[in-house]
Write a structure and sequence with these properties.
The protein has about 100 residues and is mostly helical.
């Protein structure tokens, strides 16, 4: 199942870099989960929540907010599932420039 996101054509040049950086961030998220590094998870989640919407990736922003919230509660249980959802989203997202 793919996710289609409509994004303003003005962002066409920068969206690929944005997505590439999110893929790199997955490594940091996995490492932080492994280390139970809640401070890093909270920062990553906050940035993801704040930046994604501006690029048109509202779902990614929601997942980032969930990571930030779970990290602030020092709750490791939901982290792997959130990581998996972000990875799936990034692997499946399709961009339609309008």
């Amino acid at each position: 199942m793919g996710f289609t996101v409509e994004i303003d054509r003005d962002l066409e040049e920068i969206v690929p870099t944005f997505l590439e950086n999110r893929h790199k961030e997955l490594i940091k998220i996995a490492e932080a989960i492994e280390a139970a590094d809640f401070a890093s998870l909270q920062i990553i989640g906050h940035k993801l929540a704040g930046n994604s919407g501006g690029y048109g990736f509202a779902k990614l922003g929601e997942l980032g907010a969930q990571i930030e919230q779970a990290a602030s509660k020092r709750s490791i249980d939901p982290m792997q599932g959130l990581y998996d959802q972000i990875k799936h989203y990034l692997d499946q997202v399709e961009i339609k420039y309008i």
